[in-house]
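To illustrate the input format used throughout this study, we show a single complete record. The first block contains the structure-token representation of the backbone; no residue identities are included at this stage. The design step must infer an amino acid for every position from geometry alone.
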């Protein structure tokens, strides 16, 4: 029976910054992998009808958890809908000899502005039977728990813009937009636990 898995998170960053990290291949490879995995994009053609190939590698090969090999998942995906600043819809196939992972999964990534922040929703339709609902939801939530990696990667290139197929250029990051995420206690990478934060000019 077809299954739908979902995950969502509120990220303290503007929608254009978050969506920019969806369409920038370097940023995507930095934040998308769940805990214990790394990512490498072997192809990236961002446009309706375009496609990409993503290789996810497990940090611990001894687990033998990969779908393509003992330590890798290989994803072949096609872009179905590209709505700049709003939504990406993809058809995803896992490269595997195991029939439990056969079938095309439709993945939608949506961003919605909420009171100066951004709500991100991941919705996966027709999830292959070989992926347990519990593991999938944990993996999706793990990816969405990486906003610091997302912002850190994009912040390295504050004036960079990425062209979204034939759509107008979408600005990935602008310095003044990044400022709120740099001054919010919960969204700055501190070296230890911070119980109190007061931001003010030095006297």
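Output of the design step:
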């Amino acid at each position: 029976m077809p299954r739908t898995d979902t995950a969502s998170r509120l990220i303290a960053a503007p929608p254009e910054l978050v969506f920019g990290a969806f369409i920038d291949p370097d940023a995507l490879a930095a934040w998308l992998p769940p805990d214990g995995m790394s990512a490498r994009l072997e192809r990236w053609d961002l446009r309706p009808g375009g496609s990409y190939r993503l290789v996810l590698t497990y940090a611990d090969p001894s687990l033998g958890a990969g779908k393509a090999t003992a330590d890798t998942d290989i994803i072949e995906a096609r872009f179905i809908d590209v709505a700049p600043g709003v939504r990406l819809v993809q058809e995803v196939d896992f490269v595997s000899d195991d029939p439990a992972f056969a079938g095309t999964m439709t993945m939608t990534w949506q961003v919605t502005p909420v009171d100066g922040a951004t709500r991100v929703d991941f919705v996966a339709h027709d999830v292959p039977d070989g992926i347990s609902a519990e593991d999938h939801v944990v993996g999706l939530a793990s990816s969405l728990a990486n906003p610091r990696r997302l912002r850190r990667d994009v912040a390295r290139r504050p004036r960079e813009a990425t062209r979204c197929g034939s759509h107008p250029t979408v600005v990935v990051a602008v310095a003044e937009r990044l400022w709120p995420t740099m001054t919010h206690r919960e969204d700055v990478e501190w070296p230890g636990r911070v119980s109190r934060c007061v931001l003010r000019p030095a006297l």
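Structural context for interpreting the output: The first strand starts at residue 4 and ends at 11. The helical segments are 15-23, 25-31, 133-144, 147-155, 175-183.
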